[in-house]
Input
Amino acid sequence: MNETVRATSLSRTMINKYRAEGRFPQAVPLGDRRFAFVRQEVYSWIQERINARQAA
Output
């Protein structure tokens, strides 16, 4: 989660909100209360935001 926060500049709260709304890549469960994000999925999500801005 910390790396995802740094990569996106979003807070943990906002990332969790976007996840709940289906607006952010889903986490991969690793075990009890542990999860990870697929780095490429997060960077693709960021690139989609950039592309949407450029299209507007």
